[in-house]
UniProtKB/TrEMBL annotation, chain A:
This is 2Fe-2S ferredoxin. GO terms for molecular function: 2 iron, 2 sulfur cluster binding; electron transfer activity; metal ion binding. Belongs to the adrenodoxin/putidaredoxin family. The keyword Iron applies. Keywords: 2Fe-2S, Iron, Iron-sulfur, Metal-binding. Its cofactor is [2Fe-2S] cluster. It comes from the Bacteria. Coiled coil: none annotated. Residues 2-106 form the 2Fe-2S ferredoxin-type domain. CDD domains: fer2.
From TrEMBL, chain B:
It comes from Neorhizobium alkalisoli. InterPro entries: Cyt_P450, Cyt_P450_CS, Cyt_P450_sf. Keywords: Heme, Iron, Metal-binding, Monooxygenase, Oxidoreductase. Pfam families: p450. This is Cytochrome P450. PROSITE patterns: CYTOCHROME_P450. The keyword Transmembrane does not apply. Its cofactor is heme. Belongs to the cytochrome P450 family.
Length: 107, 399
């Protein structure tokens, strides 16, 4: 199964396996990773699943959709060019090894 | 297996008996299998957490363009022009969705919170010393009926039209009955009022309605689409919150231990509402229509067939929730699907959560005891679950 590493705002690293087709948000919640709230359950509506994509096969990431774009404008922590909503990132084999950093706040 | 061997049930999800006690009917439905044919209406029913999610997330197979209710727009003419957000699929859907997402963003919500707090305090203060109240007309309904149109930027007159229109919108999700026909005999003037209040000229400055027309001015939407999105707002934003807040209030009144937890720690208000959205909430079901023949857990579903997805059953599914029938405001509710899931998952859910959180915080800060003082009554609407009456005995908090 492809793996993703989450780096907490305290720099703690956690690597988890994410089933293909699952979102990073779901996987993080399932693995009890602190720093992802996912209050809207993945409808790109709450911006509490914000992550900064640090490294990996960036070409394999889906483009930022129009709805995601609106929510990224309203994140609690600063938006950077690395910002994504983890509920819109669905796991693929090509994304194996992705590293994402969690923002200091989500709400 | 083929559709010849499908599991069939004579359950009628729109009958008074079903609506009086949907949860035991859901238990029965879940025990029958992953998908059940409801012969009374010639529709399918899915009722497990694990089977509803794939239906709601595979929009290519399970379309919203067939209509939000029982009526099948692939086969019959809708009563009003279909919603341009709820009743469309991609590629049309993201455009309207992005515009509404922007207007309801966390930025907007942060700005309106203080106003919600003021209004919630005012409505709770007005009843706190009254002893016995009917909480639905006297406490629950007035609050969304003020804060919602205030947020949109609507004038103060005629707002009760929102309630009648909401009844019609959600009434149309069910079958045509004498109740529905009587209601719809009054549709003309109400619909005219609503459409007039969706127009640009009707929007007061600084509201969400004006933000929708800003999207029109930016070229993201046409003038007509702007009006239709305001209509979506007015359709979906009032009854839903009244009903869900009312049911949450009843759950708290019926579970004194849970009310005590909230009263001691009002910061649990948001969690309490989230748990109520799983446990007993306004949106019990929604519909999808197949775009093609599809195999569903071994059963063949034909093209253009309706599937009724019971969100209310997903919330009580023991395969997903421990002690599913227990109302526990400290439960880890993440993953509950009372607001739907996928691309159509409620666009107003953060607005609804804020509205309810502020309401229950105000209540916990001002009310000491809260007990049922008589039987509550369900309201009659096939599209939403809610109460028309909730008699409560209350005492104010001593400070
Ligand atoms: C507790 C209150 C509420 C509940 C339980 C609720 C429930 C839902 C559900 C289950 C859906 C999904 C429908 C589907 O997938 O077919 C939905 C969609 C929607 N809701 Fe809500 N809702 C609530 C409050 C609101 C509010 C306050 C607004 C407006 C501010 C709103 C606006 C909408 C709109 C426009 C849609 C269609 C979204 C789309 O199709 O992309 N709702 N709601
Ligand atoms: S989970 Fe809400 S925006 Fe991603």
């Amino acid at each position: 199964m492809p793996k993703v590493t989450f780096i907490g705002s305290d720099d703690k690293q956690t690597q988890i396996e994410v089933p293909v087709g699952h979102s990073l948000m779901e996987a993080a919640i399932h693995a009890n990773i602190n720093g992802i709230l996912g209050e809207c359950g993945g409808s790109a509506n709450c911006a509490t699943c914000h992550v900064y994509v640090e490294s990996g096969n960036l070409d394999a990431l889906p483009e930022v959709g129009v709805v995601e774009e609106e929510m990224l404008d309203a994140t609690s922590s600063e938006r950077t060019e690395k910002s994504r909503l983890s509920c819109q990132l669905f796991m693929t084999e090509a994304l194996d090894g992705l590293v994402v950093r969690l923002p200091p706040t989500q709400a | 297996m083929s559709s010849a061997t499908r599991v069939t049930s004579d359950l009628d999800p729109f009958s008074p008996e079903f609506r009086a006690d949907p949860y035991s009917a859901y238990e029965k439905l879940r025990s029958l299998g992953p998908i059940v044919w409801l012969e009374k209406y010639d529709i399918w029913a899915v009722s497990h957490h694990e089977t509803i999610i794939p239906v709601l997330t595979d929009w290519e197979t399970y379309s919203n363009a067939g209509g939000g209710g029982l009526a099948n727009y692939f086969k019959e003419k809708p009563w009003r022009r279909p919603s341009i957000i709820l009743e469309v699929d991609p590629p049309e859907h993201p455009k309207a969705r992005a515009a509404l997402t922007r207007t309801l963003s966390p930025k907007t919500l942060r700005a309106i919170r203080p106003r919600f707090e003021q209004d919630a305090a005012m409505f709770v203060d007005a009843v706190a010393g009254r002893g016995e109240i009917d909480a639905i007309p006297e406490l629950v309904t007035p609050y969304p009926l003020k804060v919602f149109p205030d947020s949109v930027g609507m004038e103060a007159d005629g707002r009760e039209n929102l309630l009648t229109y909401g009844s019609m919108v959600f009434g149309s999700f069910g079958p045509v009955t004498p109740w529905y026909e009587e209601l719809m005999s009054r549709v003309g003037p109400v619909q005219d009022w609503i459409l007039a209040h969706c127009k640009r000229e009707a929007m007061l400055p600084g509201g969400i309605g004006e933000m929708i027309y800003d999207a029109v001015d930016a070229g993201d939407l046409t003038e007509e689409e702007g009006g239709l999105l305001v209509r979506s707002f007015l359709s979906a934003g009032v009854d839903t919150t009244i009903d869900s807040i009312g049911l949450c209030l009843r759950a708290l009144a019926e579970h004194p231990d849970q009310w005590a937890l909230l009263r001691e720690d009002p910061s649990l208000a948001r969690a309490a509402f989230e748990e109520a959205t799983r446990y007993d909430s306004s949106s019990q079901s929604l519909f999808r229509t197949t775009t093609r023949e599809v195999d569903f857990a071994g059963t063949t579903i034909g093209k253009h067939e309706k599937i009724m997805c019971f969100l209310g059953s997903a919330g009580r599914d023991p395969a997903r929730w421990e002690n599913a029938d227990t109302f526990d405001i400290r439960r880890r509710t993440v993953g509950q699907i009372g607001f739907g899931v996928g691309i159509h998952g409620c666009v107003g859910q953060m607005f609804a959560r804020l509205e309810a959180e502020v309401f229950f915080q105000a209540l916990a800060a001002r009310i000491e005891t809260l007990e049922p003082s008589g039987p509550s009554q369900l309201r009659l609407n096939p599209g939403l679950r809610g109460l028309s009456s909730l008699p409560l005995a209350i005492t104010p908090r001593k400070h």
